[in-house]
Amino acid sequence: MANIVNLDRVSKGYAAGQLLDEVSLGLDDNDRVGVVGLNGAGKSTLLKLLTKSIEPDTGRVTHRRDLRVVALPQTLDLPPGATVRDVVVGSAWLPEAFAAEHEWAGDAGVRSVLAGLGMPDLGLDAPVAPMSGGERRRVALAALLIRESDLLILDEPTNHLDISGINWLAAHLLRRRGALVVVTHDRWFLDAVATTTWEVAEGTVRAYEGGYAAWTLARAERARIEAAAEARRQNLLRKEIAWLRRGPPARTSKPRFRIEAANALIADVPPVRDQVSLQRLATARLGKQVYELDDVSVNLGTRSLLDHVTWNIGPGDRIGLVGANGAGKSTLLRVLTGSLAPDSGQVRTGQTVKPAFLSQELHELPLQLRVLEAVEEVARRVTLGDRELSAAQLAELFGFSGARVWTPVADLSGGEKRRLQLLRLLAAEPNVLLLDEPTNDLDIDTLAALEDLLDSWPGTVIVASHDRYLVERVCDTVVAMYGDGKVTDLPGGVDEYLAKLGAAPATPGAPAAARQPAPVKSADGGMSAGELRAAKKELARLERLVGKLEQREASLHEQLATHATDYEKVAALDAELRELQAERAATEEAWLELAERIPEA
């Protein structure tokens, strides 16, 4: 290993505040680094410092001599008159110094990369000017991937890629030589490609060995250590305050250094990190019928987005909807909400269904209002558990505290607008959530909070997403749309979806020849891949149910203690408790039986 980039006590700030404060980092020639952090923490600024596209306020950034660095920024400026060939192979975007000499640089190789990124039919002579922002971004990414470089820096490369494209990109980067630094909110991708994680927070950068899973465990351990240190500090603080509060005569004789030490303890309280605590609000009662699609078709010109689809969705279903861009996922969700009428067939909606649709579009937000006004437009008071909250209190729970509630919606960041959009939906007390790419613009901490909220959601959830981690985390079943107008059940989940596309899975550390589609049969208990996937989903569902039953049981014990002298009430509660304990025992037995069939569970 050889060092290629060094940051020595680098600081960088803007008018809004200091982003990085005396950061020192080193990068070796074979490092693969994932960069994570809250929106606005300074991740993109760190990448610009690494490329030397901006200068630090203080400190120094040094590169190895003749270091070749290429980068995909968040915003692109491609020449308007250029073609795909000019950008990818030529020097229309990247200078001649980065000539495409890689084996991928031939026409066939370029087409292979474009196909991997989800644009198999894009001609090399196609102009880039009329393309969408997502298409231009993928063309620029292709230009970087076919070039040899010592350091490849990517800022949110998975944006505008579907699950298959993300899988292909991960596999491609694992085969690539050279160092890699990538900012991403896609946790599956982070785990697949990164061997080191840099967390940008509170003006500093902490380095962790491993990808997202290792970083999560390390951060949890750090939080545990900090909590233990804070507990010791609080104990000492209580003693010091008790000592200072003794009678006035004693106070005049207290040694000055003791008083100063106590004051330092009181003052030395670290600032509370701006955490988002998404909470499940009250939901309307959901009946037995949710949605029934009977022979539904939707056409767009000569193309059939939905082709005689028959599909039933029941109460409590948790469905992940996957498919390529343009396959019809958003169309299907709009048909379910009633905002798009089918060309033929019938959609029956349960009488008690109260849906909330989180679309990909942020223009649904009232940009002319302030945050608090936007919340009050939906509900001035909401119910959270056994509490009633005002709109201002609800906004604070979703991370809009203090003066932030008076910020114009138009001035919010993309992640804040997404969070406000979700807040407004939940405030209406829906019982069915239809989420179209809900992870767009959300940082990793907010994604974790969203998943925690969905874990306890009592209604029906349908999630259309390219975020594999989210789909596998919160959904019990997965269905796919392959662009043929059908809705296909996938007992094997995302792995089955990729296998049907013929996509080799990205396996960290595995040689290219070893990255083949998952076998049809699994050695685990003789189950097929689909059966194993379904069993694991059922196991997760049973675990959630056991947790809910344990909470209800604890609540009943508390009620029994409260009403100990009311014999009639105690008898009713005791009967309910016995019934609950029987249900819990049966659920635990089912869990144990299923767990024995899945060795790794």
From TrEMBL:
The cross-references to CDD domains, in alphabetical order and at most eight, read:
ABCF_EF-3
Q: Which UniProt keywords apply?
A: ATP-binding, Coiled coil, Nucleotide-binding
InterPro entries associated with the record: AAA+_ATPase, ABC_tran_C, ABC_transporter-like_ATP-bd, ABC_transporter-like_CS, ABCF_ATPase, P-loop_NTPase, Val-tRNA_synth_C_sf
As recorded in UniProt, coiled-coil segments are 532-597
Every copy of the ABC transporter domain together lies at 5-227, 291-517
This entry's Gene Ontology molecular function terms read: ATP binding
Source superkingdom = Bacteria
Record carries keyword Glycoprotein: no
Checking Pfam families in the record gives: ABC_tran (PF00005), ABC_tran_CTD (PF16326)
Signal: present as a keyword of the record? no
Which residue ranges traverse the bilayer?
A: none
> What is the protein's name according to its record?
ABC-F family ATP-binding cassette domain-containing protein
Its source organism is Planosporangium thailandense
